[in-house]
Design goal:
It is built from 5 helices and 11 strands. With about 180 residues, the protein is of the alpha+beta class. Helix 2 runs antiparallel to helix 3.
């Protein structure tokens, strides 16, 4: 499945779509958030990272590696994340801030242009994704200070939202047709 947003293209392996559907359905059943990072292989295909389960309002995602009995191995470059919300709510400050932080970290780690897709799935609405635009590290540091100190307000949130593309909505039925 390809998602194209503002000139950026994300080629998602069918395993990503299947995981999105499964996690969204699991959230419908128990009201707990779930998610995974989107990991781009050297071949250009994006696959799901380790799947994580949270509580009713938060999930912490693991990086793009898998740990076996003795050590970990690299899956691919982190190019985004997916997580569920039990209710049809838009991305919140923490979701957006986390995406900005991860996008900047990925650019530092891998170089090149920004490539970060933030997707949220809800049982009733399907999947909504937006891509991160170029963000200055200084802006992100200022956001982090405000986030830590709890100084966020509506103006800050609007500014933060401006660093993302328009949202692409993919209904559940359309996702089911992709697998």
């Amino acid at each position: 499945m390809n998602i194209k947003i503002d000139g950026q293209e994300f080629n998602l392996d069918p395993s990503v779509v299947k995981a999105m559907l499964r996690l969204t359905e699991n959230t419908r059943k128990d009201g707990r958030e779930r998610g995974f990072n989107l990991c781009k292989l050297d071949s250009g295909i994006t696959v799901p990272g380790p799947i994580c389960k949270g509580d009713e309002c938060h999930v912490t995602l693991k990086g793009c590696y898998v740990k076996d009995d003795k050590n970990g191995h690299y899956i691919g470059r982190q190019v985004g994340s997916f997580h569920t919300h039990p209710e049809d709510l838009p991305a919140n400050w923490g979701d957006l801030f986390g995406a900005v932080k991860q996008g900047i970290n990925a650019k530092r780690r891998y170089g090149g242009s920004y490539e970060y897709l933030e997707c949220i799935g809800t049982p009733d609405s399907g999947i909504k994704c937006s891509a991160l635009k170029e963000v200055s590290p200084d802006f992100a540091l200022g956001l982090r200070a405000e986030y830590i100190l709890g100084l966020t307000n509506d103006e800050d949130e609007k500014l933060l939202e401006s660093y993302f593309t328009d949202i692409v909505h993919i209904p559940i039925e359309e996702l089911k047709n992709q697998v």
